[in-house]
Each structure stands twice: as structure tokens, then as C-alpha cells.
Specification:
Layout: H1 2-44, H2 48-64, H3 66-72, H4 75-94, H5 97-118, H6 122-125
């Protein structure tokens, strides 16, 4: 009977860790995505410098949490986000609105997908 309780406790601990990870990933990527949308609004107003500064802040946040993302998520997904950040920053530097808007929307979508992959949904469990 003791083994059953230990196993149940370990299972509960793993479930709690998984749910906490999902919440944390959603919080991080949601905040990043919101600030990237704000940067896109700034470019629409012609304020490219502020948009670039805001995007660089988001990129630095990504780098600050690089160990977390790279440890708990698929490397190919995190590498894709890194490439997308670099692409967005280059289009900001060049002030190319069409390419920037498309690249930024892609980056936001990739961040949302990262968080979605960690959520406890039927689709992810099956």
C-alpha cells in the first residue's frame, strides 16, 4: 500500500509540475507577443525607432529565458523563434513595412504555438 501512495504522490507532483510549466510558458510568450503587437502598432504610426527598441527588449527577454525554453521545449521550435527574431529585427532596421509586418506576425504566431504545445489539452495528450 505504501508503494501505491508513493506512486500517486509522484504522479501528482509530475502533474503539478506540468501544469505549472504550461502556465509559465503561456505567461512568458503571451507577454512577449503583446509587446511585439505594440511594436507593430508603433511602426504603423511611423515610430520605427521605438518599435525597434521594444522588439529588442522582447528579444533580450527571450535570451534571458533561453535556458528555460531550450531545456523544456523542442530545439527546432526554439531555433525557429530565434531565426524569426533576427528576421524581424533586420526588417525593423531596414524599415520595410510589408516584410516586417509579415515576419512579426509569424514570430507572434510561433510564440503562441510554443505556449500552446505545453497546455494540457486533449489534442496535446493524444
Amino acid at each position: 500500500m505504501k508503494r501505491l501512495w508513493i506512486a500517486a504522490g509522484l504522479l501528482a507532483l509530475l502533474l503539478a509540475a506540468s501544469l505549472t510549466n504550461a502556465w509559465y510558458a503561456q505567461k512568458l510568450t503571451g507577454n512577449m507577443g503583446e509587446r511585439l503587437r505594440q511594436a507593430q502598432t508603433l511602426t504603423g504610426q511611423g515610430n520605427w525607432d521605438r518599435a525597434e527598441a521594444l522588439t529588442r527588449q522582447v528579444y533580450e527577454d527571450w535570451q534571458d529565458h533561453h535556458f528555460y525554453f531550450h531545456t523544456l521545449m523542442r530545439h527546432s521550435d526554439t531555433d525557429q523563434v530565434l531565426r524569426a527574431f533576427r528576421q524581424v529585427l533586420e526588417y525593423l532596421r531596414l524599415q520595410e513595412p510589408d516584410q516586417y509586418n509579415a515576419a512579426n506576425a509569424d514570430l507572434v504566431a510561433q510564440l503562441e504555438l510554443l505556449a500552446e504545445m505545453e497546455q494540457a489539452t486533449v489534442v496535446n495528450v493524444l
